[in-house]
Recover the amino acids of this structure.
């Protein structure tokens, strides 16, 4: 079949497209092509259609030379893929179709600077999208990859992650992965983590919940937050208002925005909405463990445009292992070299009071003017910077 140039909208996060596929009606090839064009032209990616096959009511497209401009990076970059397979099925819901995507095992990230180029390996990177083709919006998507690897061909810098899952549903937004690592030149290890998970979902009263966790984090530094768990919620930031922000952020990531930039965009937009609503965010639980230290706490913060750091609030923390941390940073009378670089941390640690079961308790306040107060003692002045 002669190749036909079209503009399609599958992006760097095509792997993040998935929904349960339910075939209800036979779909004609031309109708499927029109839906694909309408969906994918929104996102400005060029590709060559190599084949289109109608099999048992499903239409299967194959595309080569798929090119997507990537944004949110330090320099211009482009994703290039061949042999991208797209399968479309009709559903038993009017005006909705399921679109399955299977990515090739190899791809490229092109850039002017060699250090920004990547050879991509994508094992079992696939998923699908439920699409409302009348309103031109996604209903849900989920996707996964057994593992992803990005290798820079000259300096041999690389990153990899296993078990990637990205999901957008009306009642859930999730990103998680396992066994990730990243390196500098010549594979010098710069960090690794056993597992990471971000989960946002609504509560019984339409409040928004955010759960974050990572385990097994390793960094080449003295302070190692190996395990972190955070559970938070906000009744005055309803899910009905947070959901469109999340949907936009996930969609932008699907269509070429760097994941780090997408996370920053989502965080900024949620902060803006929380500040507009005067919405307090409850820290229902925060747990941090690493290098013989354990901290467990809870608190509440409120987004405020007038606050020096965008928030003010309070956190009550019980610490196990104060002596280990004191050995690392010292005391106000005798700080270590590291402690001399962060005097507010030294003062804050020293301000602890005896807690339950051998813990040290810290009542930490972040004030609107930027001051940090620990158990009634100002350890950091937002105006003086010390």
């Amino acid at each position: 079949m002669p190749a036909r140039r079209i503009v399609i909208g599958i992006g760097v996060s095509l792997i993040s497209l998935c929904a349960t596929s339910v075939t209800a009606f036979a779909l004609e090839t031309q109708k499927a092509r029109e839906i694909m064009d309408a969906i994918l032209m929104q996102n400005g990616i060029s590709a060559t259609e190599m084949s289109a096959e109608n099999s048992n009511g499903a239409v299967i497209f194959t595309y080569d030379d798929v090119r997507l401009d990537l944004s949110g990076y330090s320099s211009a970059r482009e994703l290039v893929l061949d042999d991208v397979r797209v399968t479309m099925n009709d559903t038993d819901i009017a005006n909705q179709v399921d679109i399955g995507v299977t990515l090739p095992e190899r791809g490229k990230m092109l850039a002017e600077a060699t250090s920004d180029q990547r050879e991509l390996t994508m094992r079992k990177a696939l998923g699908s999208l439920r699409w409302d083709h009348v309103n031109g919006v996604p209903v849900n998507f989920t996707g996964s990859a057994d593992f992803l690897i990005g290798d820079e061909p000259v300096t041999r810098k690389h990153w990899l992650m296993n078990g990637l899952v990205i999901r957008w549903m009306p009642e859930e937004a999730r990103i998680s992965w396992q066994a990730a690592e990243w390196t500098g030149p010549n594979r010098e290890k710069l960090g690794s983590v056993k597992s990471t998970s971000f989960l946002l979902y609504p509560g019984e009263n339409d409040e928004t919940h955010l759960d974050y966790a990572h385990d097994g984090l390793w960094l080449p530094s003295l302070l190692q937050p190996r395990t972190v768990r955070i559970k938070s919620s906000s009744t005055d930031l309803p899910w009905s208002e947070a959901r469109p922000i999340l949907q936009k952020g996930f969609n932008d990531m699907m269509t070429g925005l760097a994941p780090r930039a997408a996370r920053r965009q989502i965080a900024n937009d949620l902060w803006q909405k929380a500040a507009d609503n005067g919405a307090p965010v409850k820290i229902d639980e925060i747990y941090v463990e690493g290098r013989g230290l354990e901290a467990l706490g809870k608190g509440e913060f409120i987004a405020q445009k007038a606050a020096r750091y965008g928030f003010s609030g309070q956190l009550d923390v019980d610490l196990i292992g104060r002596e280990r941390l004191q050995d690392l940073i010292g005391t106000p009378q005798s700080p270590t070299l590291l402690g001399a670089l962060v005097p507010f941390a030294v003062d804050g640690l020293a301000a602890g009071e005896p807690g339950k079961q051998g813990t040290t308790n810290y009542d930490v306040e972040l004030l609107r003017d930027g001051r940090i107060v620990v158990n009634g003692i100002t350890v950091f002045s937002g105006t003086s910077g010390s």
About this structure: Residues 292-386 form one domain. The first helix runs from residue 29 to 40. The chain has two domains: 4-291, 292-386.
